[in-house]
Write a structure and sequence with these properties.
By secondary structure, the protein is α/β, with parallel strands linked by helices. About 30% of the residues lie in helices and about 20% in strands. The longest helix has 26 residues.
């Protein structure tokens, strides 16, 4: 335990104002039999010198050990209520110091272009997801921790808490490296974990010897449509309603459901960013050629995934790895390369794909709202779409373009208007001021302005897309909360987009919600993201957690088959192809949500479930068979859950 003398030295040596700490370790136990379990500790029992008023301090520094990588809530009791954040630890079972900005408890999240950028906050021994109750950090008397549906009986130990003005940084205080030489967690053990290169090579060889024919397995056409039903062919993907049920139609005229996976890369899920700040966390660095030195916030990046690919395929691994990617897609019934995937794989024209067009005008300080008012907007829009749309004009493998992902302004129209009015002088600010002058400054008028701006923006994007590429579908925005897209906003979307798209992290897509969206829009729907994960690999359990790898497979089948039983759902994309980086991707996320782990091996339970569903989806969507009925055990979402203090 640090002494007051050490803290004084720290304060003088790196310019950090630290409140001295003291005393004994305190433990909070999480009871797996409860829906929500946790407890609180009086701060004076951890550090009697801590002030109750945190004004002037910017960081609260907690020295803790969490027995699991499962998400938990850490918060403080204040004079106005209880403020908390979600935390995922990269180092289960090991001591570490996590410095948390005080503003996460006292201020709303800063404006960003999409939901992940808004709420995910990376650190070095764990990551933080913010959002919820905020207020002045006064009268702070206790720290609390709670966990929803603990997977096993878990605990958190806290032995130190202090305040700092400057960021003191995070520190790994464990007694063993967090990652092994293959990029796996070195802190947990599990069935199937690789311990030797010989065992890993045997698993790779067994997969390479498998024979696969997607046509025999699923009855797919060249483009992944169903040979059982052919209609008019146009040479490109389109949509059509047949006997009250919507479908994509592939370029040859076969009915098609887009069964996709996002972020399809030959490798992935094995990068370690900011290696220079990961003291004691890595058992063995990859060879120098697998380490990138950047000037960005990622710093020095070690690529264990690339190292594993060379171990498997040799120095020139891309071609062989690409062939394995397509073989896996064939085997698993995946007929679509989803969003944010490797462009090189898309352009090989072996699988249908979707992509995002990246139009000009989207602004982070406008919460993802497009600024259509600048004088040179159309010129910049044309330049941006010439780069991302025009090259695909004649490619029949492209299904269509998404405009963007999870805009944060939806449902927060009042806030985005205030950000505009309080912000720098620019065209959208002038337009808003004139709109309010002409129509009156009321909440409804502000909302009308945001909707009108959105309509102008997506109409301009659609017009430019059709000018540069009239052959492909406009798949719209992948909304993060489709429940907030209704009425006038949904009407605007239905007049411009060819499909209504949304991301839907849930046990299964809600039928009543889809009925409402379909009734109001009259358009078919795509789900752009969903997933399930667990914690047995030392990673976060994703946005929807299940208890085990087996339950991930059960959850996939239940979600997908019940989704496609709706007559208007024509596409899904599982997020993601690879597990996320164990020590955090660019925004900190480290979910066990992949089809493939860091050692380039598939998750058997997940991929077998994908195969089982793919065999049934045509009949399910046609209304000829019932969807899978088994529900995963104790599946839970990422909301705060019930308050059981």
């Amino acid at each position: 335990m640090k002494s007051s003398l050490f803290n004084l030295f720290l304060s003088l040596s790196i310019g950090v104002s630290v409140v001295a700490c003291t005393t004994d370790t305190k433990v909070i136990h999480f009871d797996s039999s409860r829906e929500m379990s946790g407890g609180k500790i009086a701060i004076c029992d951890l550090n009697p010198s801590m002030p109750e008023d945190w004004e002037g301090y910017n960081y609260v520094v907690v020295e803790m050990k969490v027995s699991t990588s499962q998400r938990f809530f850490l918060g403080f009791n204040t004079s106005h209520g209880y403020d908390e954040v979600r935390i995922h630890s990269y180092v289960p079972g090991q001591w570490n110091r996590l410095a948390i900005p005080v503003r996460f408890f006292s201020q709303p999240p800063a404006s960003a272009v999409d939901m992940a950028a808004t709420y995910n906050q990376p650190r070095y021994t764990g990551w933080i997801n913010i959002g919820g109750n905020t207020g002045p950090m006064t009268g702070v008397d206790s720290i609390g921790a709670r966990m929803r549906a603990p997977i096993g009986n878990q605990s958190i130990e806290i032995r130190n808490i202090e305040l700092a003005v400057e960021d003191p940084g995070d520190a790994y205080l464990g007694d063993k490296p967090a990652l092994d030489e293959f990029g796996q967690s070195n802190l947990v053990d599990y069935d199937g974990k690789v311990h030797t290169l010989k065992d890993l090579q045997a698993a790779w060889q067994a997969e390479e010897q498998e024979k696969v024919s997607e046509e025999e397995l699923y009855g797919y056409s060249k483009y992944g449509g169903y040979k059982a039903h052919q209609v008019k062919a146009t040479g490109f993907f389109r949509t059509e309603c047949i006997d009250g049920r919507w479908w994509f139609v592939d370029p040859e005229g076969y009915l098609f459901l887009s069964v996709g996976v996002d972020c399809v890369y030959n490798s992935g899920g094995g990068s370690v960013r900011n290696v220079e700040r990961r003291d004691g966390m890595l058992k063995q660095l990859p060879p120098e050629k697998f380490i990138r030195h950047t000037d960005s916030r990622d710093g020095m990046v070690a690529n264990y995934d690339q190292w594993n690919l060379e171990r498997r395929y040799g120095e020139d691994s891309f071609k062989a790895a690409a062939e394995m990617t397509f073989k896996r897609m064939d085997k698993w019934g995946v007929n679509t390369i989803g969003n944010w995937s490797d462009r090189r794989l898309e352009q090989m024209n072996r699988k249908a794909f979707t992509c995002t067009m990246h139009p000009a005008g989207i602004a982070a300080d406008l919460m993802g709202l497009g600024d259509v008012y600048e004088a040179n907007f159309m010129q910049e829009l044309e330049q941006s779409l010439r780069r991302s749309v025009e090259p695909n004009r004649d490619n029949p493998w492209l299904i269509g373009y998404f405009v963007g992902n999870e805009p944060v302004w939806v449902g927060q129209e009042q806030r985005v208007c205030q950000l505009i009015l309080d912000g720098r002088d620019r065209a959208i600010k002038t337009a808003l001021q004139q709109y309010l002058t002409a129509n009156g400054d009321t909440p409804e008028v502000r909302k009308d302005f945001v909707y009108d701006s959105f309509r102008r923006y997506i109409e301009a994007v659609k017009e430019m897309q059709l000018k540069l590429d009239p052959n492909h579908l406009n798949l719209g925005y992948r909304f993060g909360d489709i429940h907030a897209v209704k009425g006038e906003l949904l009407s605007i979307c239905s007049q411009v987009f060819d499909v209504i798209s949304f991301n839907c992290y849930a046990l299964a897509p809600d039928k009543a919600m889809m009925d409402r969206v379909f009734k109001e829009s009259g358009l078919p729907m795509i789900i752009g993201e969903f997933h399930f994960g667990s914690v047995d690999r030392g990673q976060g359990q994703s946005l929807w957690q299940v208890d085990s790898q087996r339950e991930r497979g059960v959850a996939y089948r239940y979600y997908v088959e019940n989704g496609y039983s709706h007559p208007a759902l024509i596409g899904t994309a599982y997020f993601t192809w690879n597990d996320q980086d164990i020590l955090g991707r660019m925004d900190g996320e480290n979910y066990n949500c992949g089809c493939i782990d860091v050692t380039n091996r598939p998750y058997r339970e997940q991929t077998e479930a994908m195969m089982a569903s793919a065999r049934q989806l045509y009949a399910i969507h046609a209304g000829k068979e019932a969807p899978y009925s088994e529900r995963p055990v104790r599946a839970r979402g990422h909301d705060h859950g019930p308050d059981e203090w």
